[in-house]
Amino acid sequence: MYSYWKNSYATFSGTTIAAVQVAGTITSIKVNVTTPYTGVQGTLKLHFDNPFLRLSDGSRARWDPQINLKTAALRTIALSGVTGTQTGDTALTVPDATKTWLVPDQITLKTTADISGEGAGVLPHFSVEFITDQGLNNLGSSFTCDFS
Q1: CA gyration radius for the chain?
Q2: pLDDT 10s digits, 75-116
Q3: Which regions of the chain are under pLDDT 50?
Q4: Is 101 helix (H, G, I), strand (E, B) or coil?
Q5: Is the Cβ–Cβ distance between 81 and 93 less than 8 Å?
Q6: CA 129 to chain centre
Q7: Inside any domain, residue 61
């Protein structure tokens, strides 16, 4: 539960797109812009609305990566690094390469401008995928629960 989330977008209204329901250490975050935005805005970015994170030392941090929706490409964010970075993308590197834990109910996908009044032909098409590790594989092969 809360270790995988994926959705695709071709239309949306306002700047808030979706709340992301994930929790755990980042395994990978993929943002794939398949059709770039070509509307009137000078820039248009997708961002995570500055969520709280837990770092390997237990401290909290905020992180707000921003993806340039005017450039088609797959961006992959992992603890080990980032691939596919494009001009205009910012802050994609995770704050702690050892362990960056996504806190539940903290990520809201948003855009930097409201483009809902623009024609469908200029809107970006993109998908976002989150995969996390909640550490449940450390429980061993079996365990017993007594519900009596």
Answers
A1: 17
A2: 999 999 999 999 999 999 999 999 999 988 899 999 999 999
A3: 139-145, 148
A4: strand
A5: yes
A6: 7
A7: yes
**Does residue 64 sit within a domain?**
yes
Answer yes or no: is 147 within a domain.
Answer: no
pTM of the model: 0.89
- Residue range(s) defining the domain that contains residue 39: 4-134
Q: What is the largest CA-CA distance in the chain?
A: 63
Residue 145 lies in a domain: no
Q: Report percent pLDDT > 70 for the chain.
A: 91
Q: Tell me how far apart the alpha carbons of residues 132 and 71 are, in angstroms, rounded to a whole number.
A: 26
Number of domains composing the chain: 1
Torsion of the alpha carbons at 131, 106, 93 and 90, rounded to the nearest 10: 120
